[in-house]
Amino acid sequence: MSAISCATGLIDGDSGVDAFAEAAARAALGLGGAPCDVALVFAGQDNLGHASIGLEAVHDRLHPAALAGCGAQGVVGTRREIETGGVVVWAASLGEGSAEAFHLEAVALGERQLAIAGMPDVTENETLVMFVDPYTFPAEALLTEIGESSPGVPVVGGLAAAESAPAALFHHGQVAPTGAVGIVLSDVALECTVSQGASPIGPEMVVTACDGNVIEELASRPALDRLMEAIERELTPNEQALATQGLLVGIVIDENRPDYERGDFLVRALLAVDEQERTITIGERVRVGQTVRLHVRDAASADVDLRSALERAARELERPAAGALMFTCNGRGSHMFGTPGHDADALAREIGPAPAAGFFCAGEIGPVGARSFVHGFSTSVALFAG
Description:
7-stranded mixed beta sheet, alpha+beta, Elongation Factor Tu (Ef-tu), domain 3, 386 residues, 2 domains
């Protein structure tokens, strides 16, 4: 695989078509004359009324072989986050790699069956970058299908939802109101990771009885009893204080490891406890034999988890990062950290000044183990080797 080059153009404010044109011009300048194999465009809700003409401006300046993107509440650029508004254009010359854009629609076959129209064939050495309208497209169902039919193929991206604007999905020069869009990257060296913004606490516990997403027993004891014992006897005072703010449950996805670390757990909410049945209900189906561990989430946990995830991904990358895509939850940013720009700054600090772009999501798509999931309060990242 030959080296790739990436560039980003970021425009603050709501300057209409000019925002798209200027962002694309800056990205073109950053490519330095190299052909644009893929362009990703993300626009804050204030600019969505100009999206169709704006995409024409992007095509005029970059002539991308493939283009995808979406509208969002806000956008992410290199070292910068604009939580409301803005336009960012990320462009890449992929060397020997290639990109194919797609637009998917969910088609009803009956009262309870859906088919996905427009799905490209996906094989090994490929990665999907995907942006989804959560109201018209079953993202989790598609990710489950991809995980079963193409295990190990990573999917990164996010659910596109602006606060007060209808969905806008970008595919070549068109703006679609429904479905999902994205690109298939072939023969491109990259590393995908997701930070779920949580820290593990307490002991690992094995599920010994369950029904769907209801855990009935942990370590052959009633699940709620074992959970309360872990909180009262096996957490530090600081961990107990964090637990009172909300508990999460991490589920090991890849069990073929001697030890489980950050990134090995799929983190889901603790939805309910049944004091009579002594069971707990979480936001994911489990099976007997899986290992679980309590998690907590706060600004400090989210910071440590993101830097750890980025460090691991950078270490796995074949060469220094030439570019990055970042999809971060709209509940992060200044809402979580007190000031804007935390995630974009952490990305730059961990991987260097590689051109980056993304958007604030209503749910983030990224891999845990061999398959990808939709997450919340997370940051999903793709790092491209130079």
